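Re: the multi-chain job from yesterday

Posting the exact lines I submitted so nobody has to dig through the queue logs.
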Amino acid sequence: MKIKIDGREIECEKNKTILDICDENSIEIPKLCLIEDLKPEARCRLCIVEMNGKLATSCSIYPNEGCNILTDSQKVIKARKINMELLMAGHIRNCAVNGESNELCRLLDKLKIERIRFEPIRKYKQDLSESVIRDDNKCINCGKCIRACGEIMEVYAIDFAGKGHNEHVSPYSGHRLHDVACIKCGQCIAACPVGAIYEREHLYEVIKALKNKKKHVVVQTAPAIRAAIGEEFNMPAGSLVTGKMVAALRRCGFDRIFDTPLGADMTIMEEASEFLERVKKNGLFPMITTCCPSWIKFMEHFEHELIPNMSTCKSPHEMLGILTKTYYAEKSGINKKDIVVVSVMPCVAKKFESTRPELKSAVDYAITTREAAKIIRYFKIDFRNLPGEDFDNPLGIATGAGVMFGASGGVMEAALRTAYEFAANKPLKKLEFNQIRGMEGIKEGSIALNGKKINYAVAHGGKNIRRLLERKDKYHFIEMMACPGGCIGGGGQPLPLTKEILQKRMNAIYEEDSRLPIRKSHENPIVRTIYKEYLEHPLSKKAEKILHTRYYKRSEF
Amino acid sequence: MEEKEFLLSVLRKEQKNKRYISEDALKRISKKTDIPISRIYGAATFYSMLHEQKQAKNIIYVCDGPSCHVNNSKNITAYLKKKLNKSRKFSLHTASCIGCCDEAPAMLLNGNAYTKLTKEKIDEIIKKCKS
Amino acid sequence: MQILRKTELKAFKKAKRLGASGIIKILKQKGLVGRGGAAFPTGTKWEFALNTKANEKFVICNADEGEPGTFKDKFIIKYNPEALVEGILIAAYTIKARQAFIYLRGEYSYLENHLKRVVSKVLRKAKSSLKIGIIVGAGAYVCGEETAVIESIEGFRGQPYYKPPYPPTQGLYGEPTIINNVETFANVPQAILFNDWDKELRLYSLSGNLTNPGIYELPVGYSLAELIGLGKPKNKIKAVYFGCFGGCIPYSDIKLTPENVCGKNCAVGAFTIIAVDEKQSILDIAENIAKFYEHESCGKCTPCREGTKRICDIIRKIKSGKAGKDDLADLKELAENIQETSLCGLGQTATNHLLTALQYFKKEFEERIK
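And the result, structure tokens for all chains:
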């Protein structure tokens, strides 16, 4: 049908909102509270347009034939400016001081606001914790964090409380996020357009360690980082920047740069062996992966009867961390007390994970992709023009299987590649398991292992996790990732996290897998060496001691 | 659906019986209704007649609507505040218009409306209540 | 009084004979419009709900009478609740709803038992299988808005959501829902049953600085001066507020029709008249009403959540004598923005009182400006 926007006649489809139509026709309309794929709430009132003389929000209106819409009339501009002023009145502005850039402050420039007549009022205490920090004084009540936690993750840890001007985001009864059933996935951080929620940063500690000549600082990078960190330096989404990433970290002063996918390969060795043991015993099914600490916390709060189903394997970076402080320390002769292990993770939950008492974490600091970019910028390194460099020995070779951990479906695919060859004692004809790749919420398939039909499934995002759990008994092996998309969509990754960007990052991960010379975990020479020289074989006593862990029941509140 | 299944009714009952919505109540209601606790807390803190702090045995909502305002509700409110200042038996709140505009000034005491208030009338009402 | 006429289920019997389309036809013919303030034709509203295909439909009676100065629904609940229940029965019959709700404001909880008794009595007499649940609110003016009632019943915070879609097509639990005011439902059986039902009669809620306030049943277009006369003021009346949402005008002999009142930048709404005498300060009343909106704003949308608070701050500044000309200009600009960009009726009418006070009683504000 035809409608008129700013005097132009525009041809458009019927079931689209004015905002969608404007987006399609490159007409810019400011918006703050809209979330991709979810029903709009029209809270922020910034996307105002003039329709037939009256002001209305473009995100919520489906125009009729012949509608006359103005997106930049005097009335519209004035309304947007005042609403923007009112939004800023609810947002303590120390962003300029911290050099933070967030959506709200960027909009401020775009809308050319000259003065803000209303002073913000600081009336809330900051909510501090190990992973996620909330500062309600910056919150503009857009509700995106709540919808991410509720409609996307189905955790519902937070909601609005109070009324009117006292409306604020809260778990319940004034508790900190740390004390309630929050899985620390960080999707709320990713959703927040004003930086009112952010990860607890460890920049100071890491830089201090780097400057301390007595410390041997080792950094390891998760596979999801290499597909995304380029975006922090204005490279297009999904640029695979492995070499530059290593070069940048080296120039920051890290003594060794190891590859977390190697830890992932170790995880596969242990987990595939664990799974085959269960198959042999016709044991407890489904077995569920445990490399996602958010999923583990989710399970501990809401589904703790699944504890016996879980694999006891630690997550890859913890495995690599402990190997760094044992195997590597012994081999290199460095005192493990002087080794500082820093993990660059796409994940905010890893910060929490490293504080779990039973884990006795070998990782000193888990930092997010965004923090790593900040460190690189701190040392004034020109990321884009770096040459590609390689990881360090002895823990620097990884397989395509390990790298795939970054994408939803990757852990399962890596595990199957190894489990199949262990069980069948012959190579897989086709290495790619396309049915569990991609952004589909729940993916599944089946494979024959030693004559037995094994059903496997993969879910990512809280909503899909819950749906899959409803029919979990159909499967023998399940991979769960809390963040939509898997780790590439983690709460610590460069923002924003749109479906388009996640798909591009996923493509980069699978591209890396196809490029790498070794694509199966058990063929990794370093993995073989570690077992030969140090751990004997998967699930050995020593392996159980340092590479496995346990889980607990937690309250659903 | 039975009335007791509506969250608002459940919260009102809890407020009436226990005189506030405690954290334990939130957990109990969440377990029973499968509604996320954050949402229950959000609903409980939205309404003026549901309280997070425990209220005294007697709750007064004195009307501050415009009809009562132009009929000197300010004096009534001030008098009540002074009189019940140190009282542990009364919780005093101001409320938006309670709908007794033709009998202003007015207040609600334990859910019942008392209208055409004067200082003397208030003295009588409070005395009756205390006994 | 017309509103107190008993229909004793005879209208329900007649309605069943007429059938759904007959009921809607007669309501349209008789010209019944909503009496909650929006004056939407009742027959048309019910027709939308009837024509929307769904497995389950609902009827909600909005008894969350919260507009300051309004107490006519209380009057009906006290003195002719049977008509109200019969109206709900007829509505439910029309759209084949099996469940209805009466959302009674928390401040009227002392009427709950009385209403419950009447409901069971009428349902028994009508031999109806309709379930009428009484849900008592807990103190939120915004829950008078129809989408907020729906959210509140569904167990969420009582925050309105944007329309369209409107409740008759998509309401409670996403199903077609008829939501009408108490006075509207009470008039349904009377309009259907009585040939001499006068559609122009309304219940005026009269209060303020009067010695004879109360509910007066008078036609639309009654003279304001005569109405005030009925209220027997002691002192000269300076201004009249149409509730809080309708704005204020100086005392005059205006005929209270929607058009005339609209012409003065006000809204007659549900015919609430608060008479203010010359001893009162308009600035004081402005502060009182601004505080009301600040407290009752639900917090969802930016202009109302932040704006109502800032309005309060500026008015206080003016009262304290510290405000300048800029503040007055800011006040007007802010008030207009809240009016034009808020999500729901509360925000859209929250500053009418102020804009009309600034228009007609500017001196009272200006004399405090330095």
